[in-house]
Design brief:
Length: about 130
């Protein structure tokens, strides 16, 4: 019935800052960028493999209940080929990254960091 996740939507507080983070720092290519005048809102579709992130801006969005243990979406996880190299890249860009841990169930390494609005993001060592 369901074949894949098509996209995840993120509402940011500062569109230019978040667009810079997701495109320049994380390296996600822009598929399309649209200004919706009737909403005073930007929408930027970003490619993540076969999936997309829809980055939205809205005037005065309410703050998000954060941290992974809050009810709702826990976090977004990105598969990476070289976790230590990705962590170094983020740290060189001034992004704080938690220490790398090992998933007790899969034996794979992972870590967490946050986007400009403190949305928890995970890096997960791919196969």
């Amino acid at each position: 019935m369901i074949d894949a996740i098509h996209h995840a939507a993120i509402i940011c507080s500062d569109y230019e800052r978040s667009k810079d983070f997701y495109t320049r720092i994380l390296g996600l290519p822009i598929i399309r960028e649209t200004y919706r005048a009737e909403r005073g809102s930007w929408k930027c579709d970003l490619a993540v493999g076969a999936t997309q992130i829809e980055l939205f801006s809205f005037p005065a969005p309410p703050p998000r209940v954060s941290r992974p243990e809050a009810c709702g979406l826990r976090h977004l996880a990105f598969a990476v080929a070289d976790l230590p190299a990705t962590v170094r890249h983020l740290q060189q860009a001034g992004i704080e990254v938690e220490p790398i841990r090992t998933d007790a169930l899969t034996g794979r390494d992972f870590t967490f960091f946050a986007d400009p609005d403190d949305l928890p993001l995970e890096l997960y060592q791919a196969g």
